[in-house]
Every structure is written in C-alpha cells, then in structure tokens.
Amino acid sequence: MTPPSQEPLTIEVLHQSICECKRCPRLVAWTKEVTRTKVARFKDFDYWGKPVPSLGKVDARLLIVGLAPAAHGGTRTGRVFTGDRSGDWLYRALHRFGFANQPSSIDRNDGLNLTDCYITAVLHCAPPLNKPLPEEIAKCQPYLASELKLLNQVRVFVALGKIAFDNLWPLLSQPRQKKPIFQHGLEVELVSGQTLIASYHPSQQNTFTGKLTEPMFDRIFARARLRLGPSGQS
Known about the structure:
single chain, 234 residues, alpha/beta, CATH 3.40.470.10, six-stranded mixed β-sheet, 8 helices, 36% helix, globular
C-alpha cells in the first residue's frame, strides 16, 4: 500500500498515509462516533479522531506489534498505546529494560522517547468491541508489510496477542518454517536469523483476570534485551 505520492516511501511518508487512510468505512464511521460522543472522563478532551500512526525510528532493532489503538486511548491521544491501561503496562516494561526513557505515556507531548524500539499494530483504527473484521485486517496489513521493508535493522519481533502473531508470521516466515502454535513466551528462531517472541496482549481482559501478570510480561522484554545486548549497545 504505497502512498499515492511521487515521494520515495519513507517512514514519515508512510505515517502520513496511515493518518489519511479511509479504506475501511466501518472503522472510519466508528472513529467519528467515538470522537463525537467521547466518554464522561474525557468529555473536555480534543480527540485525535483519525487512524493512529506507528511510533519509533527506522533504525530500531526491536519491533512490537499490537492489535489496534484503543477507542479512548490512541484514538483520543493520537499516539499508539497512549492514555490507556495497556499502554501503562507496555511502557513500564519498556522503561525497565531500557527501551523507553519514561515508564508512562499520557499524551503526545509528555516527553516520551523510545530507544532502539518501534511500535506498530495490525490495525491503525480502533475496531468496535476490539473485534476487527478479516477484511479490515487485510486492508491494513500492507502498511505492516511496508514497515517491515523499511525497518531493516530489526533483530527481535514481539507480537502482542494471537492476532498480531498470526498476521506478523506470514510476513516473516520462509517456506521451510512451519507456523508454531501461539502461546505466551514462545520464542522462534527465524530462518533470517531474527527472533520472534509471542506474548499475551496487555489488555484489561488479560491483566485484570491474572492471565497476564507483570512478571510474565517483564520476561518477554528481558528476553528481547538479552537478544539485543545491553541498552546502548548496537
């Protein structure tokens, strides 16, 4: 899904294309509805109200793939995993292992910076009930494919949740590798020499029930850090 432009495809051009995307009418309508109605606790907040771009620099060696922005998280703030409980979990873990300069992500101007890390998602629009349709995933997947081509320094992939894992795998695997069964903590050595690590998504459905605990989540990024070496080492 190369942006309709004469410019070379760069991360910046791709992010702009994502923000302008209207390929999924149901998601466009839902985003407009969420932005219009809001929720009581954010009634005075000026919602972003568009597809949410990815976050990070093109030379990152760690790539994290989530499901989609939250209706009152990323769709509100305009930054992935920002302003919601899932983001609270993710940035705490990233900070602990040297991939972020602070343990929280509240809004786009809060000073957050990622180190050697890039965060994207299967979808860049919040789906109703967090349940995207297969055709919506298919329409958004070329953005992820384009990111993988541009992010040519990536050594470790972390898939947050089964949908992220299932959609990332065909873009990474080679014919002689059989797709493994998704499970938390799964670590796959790819033919390319890269590593794919699977994790439960830090959604409230998983964290409130204890299916995913903070030590479990930390171990995912401890493994990524071990693979990449100490913070600051290239």
